[in-house]
Design brief:
312 residues, alpha/beta, ten-stranded mixed sheet, 37% helix, globular
């Protein structure tokens, strides 16, 4: 089973307008509201791939119940932690005909130390049957940045891969002690987290190898339209994404993580798992739903992923 953890979930309210003009009145041509947050998107994508997946997140108030209802309506499995107080956030995503998206994220509730400790205890309880855990997303207000890395490392085991996908101060703290973790990150986030200029593949590989030397199990760096890199003890691979007509890239990184994690659960090689992840990320870009795609699209795109092992 893959456990997806969303530390700061949201209702994603997506509007599509052909073109965005600041200060103008717009009429949306498409509207969608779904349970969102990176960890929940990972579970959605893994479910579409046929994997057994379970979501957990701290939910609060009416908006929290809406997320639970949305998830249930999709037929997705979850075991929620209910906050003593506070209202789960709603985030606005405006997609455009260019394939770009304007995202406005609400801060969400302030989580007390007691509630955060309760949520961490809850995660450890539901993770018992998980062979993989994906902790993905930002931290809620009130939680210290280093606690996410501490949580992730506490769940890592020889028979359980833990994937961490976060940013900002939480990522910076985790990169200092990445022992046992798979860090999934984009190029900009990794450069900021390590405070290094990472402008080419060689520099990215070197940075990944530095993290392996610190104890990380695997580093996956997403490169947008250029695909992704995997830096592992057994070697480095680059998978180039096939060109697609983009509808929305929101959730593509989460879909990539889901594809990678599911393939690893199936005991595929790191290179093969990376290619599957890149195909899932590209398939997600063909749709409005974050973490949503047609499995047949993944199969078709996978045949067009260019995977190569790097000589480093």
């Amino acid at each position: 089973m893959l456990l997806g953890v969303a530390p700061n979930p949201t209702i994603d309210h997506t509007l599509h307008v052909p073109e965005m003009v600041v200060g103008a009145v717009h009429r949306a041509t498409r509207v969608a509201r779904v349970a969102g947050g990176k960890g929940l998107n990972v579970v959605r994508a893994a479910h579409l791939l046929g994997a057994k997946a379970l979501a957990t997140a701290p939910l609060g108030g009416h908006a929290g119940q809406v997320i639970a209802d949305f998830f249930n309506a999709e037929g997705l499995a979850a075991n929620w932690y209910w906050l003593a107080m506070g209202e789960t956030r709603t985030c606005l995503l405006v997609t455009h005909d260019t394939g770009d998206a304007t995202v406005i994220n609400e801060p969400g509730p302030v989580v007390s130390k007691q509630d955060w400790q309760g949520f961490m205890d809850h995660i450890k309880g539901v993770a018992g049957e998980a062979r993989a855990v994906a902790i993905a997303g930002s931290l809620p207000l009130g939680v210290e940045p280093e606690t996410l890395g501490v949580l992730a490392r506490s769940l890592a085991a020889s028979d359980r891969m833990v994937y961490l996908d976060t940013s900002g101060a939480a990522l910076h703290a985790a990169l200092g002690q990445p022992g046992g973790l798979c860090i999934k990150v984009n190029r900009r986030e990794l450069a900021a987290g390590l405070q290094l200029p990472l402008e080419n593949v060689g520099q990215l590989v070197k940075a990944g190898q530095t993290l392996l030397a610190r104890g990380a199990a695997l580093i996956v760096v997403t490169l947008g339209r250029e695909g992704a890199l995997a830096i592992a003890p057994e070697g480095c691979w680059q998978a180039s994404a096939p060109p697609v007509e983009i509808v929305s890239t929101v959730g593509s990184g989460d879909s990539l993580l889901a594809g990678l994690a599911v393939a690893c659960l199936q005991e595929k090689s790191i290179g093969t798992a990376l290619a599957m992840g890149v195909a899932c990320g590209a398939a997600n870009a063909l749709n409005d739903l974050p973490g949503g795609f047609e499995p047949r699209e993944v199969t078709s795109l996978l045949e067009r992923v260019n995977l190569k092992k790097l000589n480093v």
